[in-house]
């Protein structure tokens, strides 16, 4: 840790001595993992808007859904003393990097633009370090969604399921008809995405106890065993080619009728939209069973860079990200809803409106929870332990009881 701190300080000092390149709206290098069809379209709107202001955009995309590869690349860049100016970073990760001295604040922009007045306090808090904004949020993604091909459901005369029992019954019918019930990509973060929706279906209190408070009783008890039982059921509904598949290829399976369902956050909607598909007609979005809302907010954190041109670039980007126009345009492409609370949703589709409505209800009912799989809930080390256990379970014949026990032990190890 100390070594990292001194590298970060040295970087700031040495960069400070470089002459500024001088670009009207500044220069910004942006590290992100938005490389699928829908994601690329969405980040393209940010690049375009930045360039329109006269800025120079240096694109650093690191492919890999969920961002694990991007986070490895980030670490290497920081260790090499050369951090990118803006990095797609989330939740506790923002605090971790700020603690290590890596982040610069954009408080002057935030104050001037009154970010506190337009962001939900929960989100504002995540973006701040010691009271100052070090990151800017672009959206609210919902995790607990099912993406459904209605024509496939119609083939077996099924309705959209509301409970896991109903889901299993529809999936059995699809399987019997030779259709893959669940399109899935066997990557740890995708396994964990599915897992956490089942945890949430046991109630937001259970979700918090297990995945946020890391309560041993919740992690190893009967309810968790039940969660793993349902995950085992889902394992039986994926096709033989699931291993390693990218999430957007799983979305394509639902799109082209090869599969009935995908359980995935609403960036999947970005894929449907980028392919010209219409919600309610070509695909259906429906929450996974339960009454909660698991959220995942993408944000850009600002790493310490020097030279007027690069510092200017960060400020311009921060301001742009929080502008009402950008929050609308970006989220229309990304599948999420704006992070700002004052954006009219009249151009948004039924899935986005449902997300907003359910989010509002969840905040009121205290069932609004941060996503574990998407790095909103716990430190990376703890998340890593969760992912290992879930993936091991998914790819073996481990019993549910053993998985719950392993989860309790793994979490203890990481604490
Ligand atoms: C999430 C991220 C989303 C989406 C997804 C798949 O972690 O928040 O914006 O990109 O990964 O790559």
Could you list some keywords that capture this structure?
4-stranded mixed sheet, 20 helices, alpha/beta, 415 residues, binds beta-D-galactopyranose, single chain, periplasm, D-Maltodextrin-Binding Protein, domain 2, transport, SBP
Mean of pLDDT: 94
Show unreliable segments: 9-20
Structural class: alpha/beta
Per CATH, the superfamily of the largest domain is Periplasmic binding protein-like II
What is the gyration radius calculated from CA atoms? 21 Å
What does this structure look like?
The structure is a single chain. By secondary structure, the chain is α/β, with parallel strands linked by helices. The protein has 2 domains: 2-141 and 296-351, D-Maltodextrin-Binding Protein, domain 2 (3-Layer(aba) Sandwich), CATH 3.40.190; 143-295 and 375-414, D-Maltodextrin-Binding Protein, domain 2. The chain is built from 20 helices and 15 strands. It has helices at 2-16, 37-52, 68-79, 91-99, 107-112, 115-118, 121-127, 150-155, 164-176, 188-201, 204-212, 216-220, 222-235, 247-255, 267-274, 308-321, 324-334, 350-365, 380-394, 400-414, and strands at residues 27-32, 56-61, 86-88, 128-129, 132-133, 135-137, 139-142, 145-148, 180-182, 259-263, 284-287, 293-296, 299-302, 337-338, 368-370. The strands form 4 sheets. It has a 5-stranded mixed sheet with strand order 2-1-3-13-6, with helices on both faces. The protein has a 4-stranded mixed sheet with strand order 14-7-12-15, sandwiched between helices. The chain has a 4-stranded mixed sheet with strand order 9-10-8-11. The site of beta-D-galactopyranose has 12 residues, from loops.
